Amino acid sequence: MRILMVCLGNICRSPLAEGMLRHKIVERGLPWEVDSAGTAKDHAGSPPDSRMIQTARKAGIDLTSLRARQFTSADFQRFDRIYVMDHRNRDNVLSLAKQDSDRHKVALLLNHLNPNESAEVPDPYYGNTEDFQQVLALVDAATEALINDLSHEH
Ligand code: 4NP
Questions:
Q1: What is the Å distance from ligand 1's center to 45 Cα?
Q2: Which is catalytic among the residues 12, 13, 49, 75?
Q3: How many domains does one find in the chain?
Q4: What is the CATH number of the domain that holds 131?
Q5: Ligand 1 centre distance from Cα of residue 90 (Å)
Q6: How many angstroms separate the Cα of 27 from the Cα of each of 20, 41, 51, 121, 124?
Q7: Which residues lie closer than 8 Å to 130 by C-beta, 6 or more apart?
Q8: 75 assigned to active site
Q9: pLDDT by residue (tens digit) across 43-86?
Q10: Atom of ligand 1 at shortest distance to CA of 135?
Q11: Is residue 15 helix, strand or coil?
């Protein structure tokens, strides 16, 4: 299983989702591959936002080695599942899809937690510490549900 987490900047939500899922799959011994990307290129090459690094660190997750990159259409070949954090990221990713098999790989991360609700992981960039903590709680619960769902599938 090759999983890509996608947000807008690849400096807040998707690096956390990558780090958290990687942490969980190592704990469980699952041979999955995890990466993340942003649909915007503004932050390419940058480490995660320092507020996200701090929030993750409190949960025992180290994001310091991650560097942002932009999502490209080649990612449809490289990954089996592409999880987007919000509707805007989904629109951006789907605009690069060439075929139905690409589109079928794309889903909202929170659909694992709340199926059919179309819920979003809110963008914390202009928010406060509590907003970052809320992102962590959502991503923690959703990655737990994702592992349960996908490990029963395969
Ligand atoms: P992310 O958060 O998409 O979770 O990485 C953002 C980071 C940067 C910006 C917006 C959202 N920005 O507008 O620069």
A1: 14
A2: 13
A3: 1
A4: 3.40.50.2300
A5: 15
A6: 11, 32, 25, 24, 28
A7: none
A8: no
A9: 999 999 999 999 999 999 999 999 999 999 999 999 999 999 99
A10: 4
A11: helix
